[in-house]
Amino acid sequence: MTTGKHLCDMPEKLVFRGGFGLKKKQPNVLLLLPKTKGPIGIKNFKKLIKDNFNLLEYDDIATEKLGIFNITDVNSLESKALAISSALEKWKGIKFHIICHSTGCGLGTFITKQNFETCKSIVLISPWNKRDKEFSSIQKQRIENSKTLETITYLKSEYNLLYPTEYIHKYNIQFKEYIFDQKNKKVDVINIEKRLKSILDCNIGDELHKLKLPKLFINAFDDKLMKVYHGKELQKLCTNSELITLNSGGHMLTETQTDELILYIKRFLNSLGK
Questions:
Q1: How confident is the model at residue 71 (pLDDT cuts 50, 70, 90)?
Q2: pLDDT tier for residue 191 given thresholds of 50, 70 and 90
């Protein structure tokens, strides 16, 4: 365990995949994804991003395994974003775009704010606007579930929240196998509570509306976690912004609507140039 230090003073401890500038004619993209994933996963999404852009991915899961998230100032998304910004000094002066999803939207917002001279645009997938009564209730219930439910029951409750019913039915065997494989693992109550509280403490709209760069919000009508009104509120708050709402896909659009998502992201980023 590392103690008594600030995360932003140890940027070399953060794990990244890929890099900027590897293909000179393609835009640079910083990818910020949540820890949660389903049995199908997001390898295809990341592959398609990598095929079309210079991809630098911040790996939150690998970074956490190093044990540095026991540091004093890591409880907020802003402090974690500051650490990522410190690590980006390696690519100082290089222009880049941010693509972020779910929890990553909080990180992406603060990184954009901290790197306003080099960040050219931000794509926010399944974002939230701010803490409100309904959103707080959902997140607090998730925290309570992590404390009281057995692992299998907890995972089922999460997947029912994050994925459309028809998607779960389509991949019913894969979901059952994935949950069965996790049955002997304990639910990480401490980190779940820390992560969800950090989301509730972060009002994205308060920060984003101050930023002039182009913004693309993508969400889905059937997202039961970051409900569709969040995207509408963000677009109303933010200048130089576009909102695309998909008919279906739930919260985990990087997994459930990969091709459609990539299509809109490519169109948006290519319209801005390198």
A1: very low
A2: confident
Using one digit for the tens of pLDDT, what is the confidence trace for 94-141? 999 999 999 999 999 999 999 999 999 999 999 999 999 999 999 999
Q: How far apart are CA 146 and CA 125, in angstroms?
A: 25
Q: What are phi and psi of 242, to 5 degrees?
A: -135, 140
Q: Of 131, 185, 126, give the one whose Cα is nearest residue 154.
A: 185
- Spell out the domain ranges in the chain: 7-130+202-272
How far apart CA 264 and CA 219 sit, in angstroms, is 12
Hunting for tokens 């954009």 — which residue is that? 112
Sole residue written with tokens 């997938």: 125
Q: Which residues lie below 8 Å from residue 37, measured CB to CB, with a gap of 6+?
A: 252, 255
CA–CA separation, 99 and 122 (whole Å): 6
CATH class as words, domain 7-130+202-272: alpha beta
Q: What is the pLDDT of residue 274?
A: 61
Can you read off the two tokens belonging to residue 144? Answer: 């309570």
Nearest CA to 168 out of 178, 181, 182, 180 is that of 178
pLDDT band, very low/low/confident/very high, at 10 (cuts 50, 70, 90): low
